[in-house]
Amino acid sequence: MNANQALYPIREVSRLTGVNAITLRAWERRYGLIEPVRTESGHRLYTDEHVRAIKRAVELTQQGVPISQVKSVLEQQAETEHLNQMAEFEELEARLQVALQALDMPALQEALDSLFIELDELSVLQLLGRFEQLLVEAEQRIIWESALLPRLYSRLRFAQKRITYNSPQKNILVASSPNLNSQLASVLAALWVLQNGMQPMLVAPNKELPNMANMKALQCQGAVLIAQSSVQEFAIRGKEIYPALDCIALLMRPNLSDDKVAIQVEQLRFSELFRNGSLL
Hints:
By secondary structure, the protein is an alpha/beta fold. It has three domains: 8-65, Multidrug-efflux Transporter Regulator, Chain: A, Domain 2 (Orthogonal Bundle); 90-160; 168-275, 3-Layer(aba) Sandwich (Rossmann fold), CATH 3.40.50.280. The protein contains nine helices and eight strands. The protein has helices at 10-17, 21-31, 48-62, 67-101, 105-118, 121-134, 138-162, 183-195, 212-217, and strands at residues 8-9, 37-38, 44-46, 171-176, 199-202, 220-227, 246-251, 268-269. It has a five-stranded parallel beta sheet with strand order 5-4-6-7-8. The longest helix has 35 residues, at 67-101. The two termini are 14 Å apart. Keywords: DNA-binding, Transcription, Transcription regulation. This is MerR family transcriptional regulator.
């Protein structure tokens, strides 16, 4: 579960779904229909996904499906939806590959339009993260960045506007090493940071990392460091990198050498970023 997603008490869920609290508890106890999050004191909290499932359960009962069978129907529907999404994902991936190989900008733009319309945000980031590591030919990278960067910066701006500023904000530095001149990698990582309810602070490619005094002034509580193959690419004369902060080292093509630079979490391949929940 994403630690930053909304959680609703049972009274609010009753208001949103029209199902009273007694019925919700009975559905949970008798049929295992919904498994809410529990607080330390035992109170039930529900996610947006729970609310959607309850609304769908209501629709099914209104269509004549016995409540005892609703969970099975919902699971079957979820499996069918997952298979359909996988097929759609693979078809869009193939379209992107063909367009890139042919250096066909109109076809690439059309495929990207479909990608952003038809897939959810996390699936989009997963696919783009994988492509970012596969592109090695200069011509393909030029056309890829020309088509994609304007879209990502636009999404980055809208995602920033959606952050709730009423709650304490967690600023996270996002930087790529001098060995890796990739705007796309940095923007994709920044979008992941925003997906987790945090504010990315982007360092321009080929710029040195800010020192700890700068980080304190920026109120950064962590960092996402993107490297070609080793976190050593960020080291200056063997100095430690933000040993007092939580950091994620994202390696595009990791090597097997041991890194002596202090970081606080396990290193990840870049593509693994979008397969995990909140890490900072």
